[in-house]
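DATA SHEET
Item: assembly model
Revision: 1
Owner: S.N.
Input lines:
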Amino acid sequence: MRSILITTVLIALSVLKADDINFLNPKIPDSIVTNWIQESEELWTSKIDIASELVTVNATARFDATNDRIRFSGIYTTKQKEIVKDSKLTFQLYDHQGSLTLFENPRAALNIEGRAAVAKFDFSIPTLHLNHEKQRNILYFKFNYVLEGSYWYHDKHDALYRPAIAFQNLGLTTRFEKRAFFTAPIAPAHTTIYSVSIVNILRTNLERSINYRQSVEARSDDLKKRIDHPRKVISKTTQGSTLLLNSYTFGVPGKFLVRQGFVWENVRWYDMDQKNDYSTVQIVSVTLYTFLVFVTVVVSFCFFHFANNPRLKPFRFALLTFVVLTKALLVYLCTFNQLGFLFLGFLGSLLLIKKVPHPPLVLHTTYFLPLATQEIYWSVVFTKSPISLQGIALSLLFYALILFPLTFVKKPLFRIVTISLLAIFSLAMYSTINAYFSFFTDYPSIGTFGNTNQVGDITDSIAALIDERYFLPILFWIPSFIWTAKSIRLR
Amino acid sequence: MRIPSNATVVAFLIAPTIALAISLDWAEIRARQLNSVLVRELGIFGYASYELLNSISEALWSSELLGEDLPQYQAFVRERAENTEILSVRARKRKNIVFIQYESIDGICAESTFQGEAVMPFFDQLSAKGLYFRNASDNTLHGRTSDGEFLVLTSLPPLRTPPIFTNHDLSKVPSLPRTLNSHGYHCISLHGFERRFWNRSEAHQALGYDQSLFLEDLNTSDLIGWGISDESLLAQASEIIKTLPEPFFLHVILLTNHHPYDHLRSRLGHGEQPIVKDYIDSVRYVDSCIEFFFETNRDSSRLNNAIFALFSDHDSGITQEVRQELTFPSDSIIPDAVPMLVLGTGHQPHRYVKAAGLQDIPVIVLDDLGISIPMTFVGNRVSSNAGNLHPSAGEQVITSELLLSQSPPPIDLNKLTLLAINYPVELTK
């Protein structure tokens, strides 16, 4: 009994499905449009003439890749006696398998002229839904009639002939299917944030360049405002599953929505499946971000310290779990943004250098690490103007060379004095140079300071430009001071 | 783990430092048009170190300047000053002064024709009305445009390297704006590019301008190539002239005719063509802009009795190619000449064949105004027959046989300029 029921349901379903397909029968087109004449870089046209016993169609299809639409216009004449006054001409769209993809579409009036009904139509057919790997660049179009408020003709006159057209070999622009997107959930303002995405790039014509450039598509929290970010050219040869790396920056704290985007300059953004698939990014101030990282590090350190305390042995497992969790949180906070990477690099170097059994090298690092971190901080994370990797490397090597003689100094007091002077000198140098750049959009020279009265006059204006980022590098000196103080105490 | 010796560590640090330093673009670093270029190449600390070393070496070099040979330089300056001494200082009505500085125009463009048509027809018309120097030499060095400005503002040869505007304190050197300023003039410069380029903003202020307007301060609705179009800049200059307190000295620095000379063509959307054709089209555009400026101000009472100096900062850099295409007068003798014309002085119009240079312009202007010429000005007055002091070729003279004769000057011109910049009082004692 049960098997009979299942069989009956399956037969009914298959009949329904067959009906659904045969109902409008788009897979037997009256015209197959394959030969498109290219009029301009992104515009193709084709003539369509259908002449049957009762229906004639004289039309032109213009595929406009820029707008992702086919403009299908012409004259439709029918002598079918079933057509009644006030009926409208319209159409439905089907995919390559004949499955209905778009039912409701614009109408054109059918005017009764003697024994015939004539419609001048100008339909705009969206082709964006061809954005599927399996779509195979074929779109079925079938005319239909409707008497608004009363009935569809395929319901009332199911055998009534209505022409169908297959649009093939459309000069489609590149299509993109998003597979995955990763970016920072929390990031500081003013610094570069990275995103990684995996995208399927579908192309019908590998000879053509890709009109789109890739970029992070960022919007305000309410989706109303789009925020532009750098664009990158996609190589002409790219197709299939592709890994894309992008970067973006927000100058103010707040909640933003981001996703992998593709932009056709001065034309449009690619509407990725028309879905709201944005990821939320919380942008916080540099100070708050640093505080979060700092607290996570301290908490992790404390848990680790307690885990080694014999009196707390019963809780050891729980404490170690917290250590792992806080470290995971640290990675979560620091991944995908430059300041986070810098913090991770700085903390990693501190941990690494602690293991080195060579005091002069540790001492050298005590001086070198904060200076090098500051150089990278101002040259990469909060750069004012492009600085080459070669330039940064040269600066770091200069530091390493200049600091080398200081490793021979044994007197603790001298070490403290040295490190204090280095901290003061470097903080002053980087702040002055970068604050000056913020005002004059160029770097100062010693002569400039010596020769003009301007700097004195604009001190207030320059002071207004100084923000939290100028004070943050003080943190890089704290471990060095602690180490030096510790080494003196140990002695 | 074996600990490396100190020598090994130092060697490991020095080797990549030297390798990186060698691979740098030193020509660009030395040219130093923008400090940000140095930072890009050297990094922030690298730049600070370079700047510090540069300042120390400059300070050391500058203290050496006042050496044993100072009297020789003092004597040279005194001798030149006798040529330019104002014999009778009369109280004259202070004329307004307008300098129009062309960009990269070769001297042979004036009076020349290309395919039967004059290249600078308006300049040719004007040249018949003033003091026109057919053999004004391009006396600039690495500093190019900034050297051109330095020549015309201080009447001193530019330095061999590095460029003066970006490397020297110009607040002490006697200059035309400073001199005019002390005689009640309002001095203003106008340039359609960024203020930081060539460190122009600081340099102009140090040289004594009361006001300097750049791209950031002007109307930028019409940009061609590097910055504000010459037409727009001159139109804005015409408006500014109406508002300036009199007497004034206005220095307009044009820009559109900049290498590679295709900015105008790009703007017009025309197709590719040889660089010389681009250049000639561009020069014609500049000439038409000057005509527009003079037409606009024809009835201006402020410019009726003004002194105008029209000159190019330096040559085109493609002078040889340009010469091959043009038909030009036979008495254009100096190969890399620049156009140089002074209008509105008390002298009768004249076409000079003698060797001249931009350093002569401030001397001619001050001479006409009856203002004493600072002793450090080495330019020649109109009546002088002294040669042109070219910073690398030496003293240039056009002989009676219309040949160019060059001889080394009695002193090092580079050192002369350094002395004038750093120790003007000591030099003129």
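QC remark: The two ends of chain B are 69 Å apart (CA to CA).
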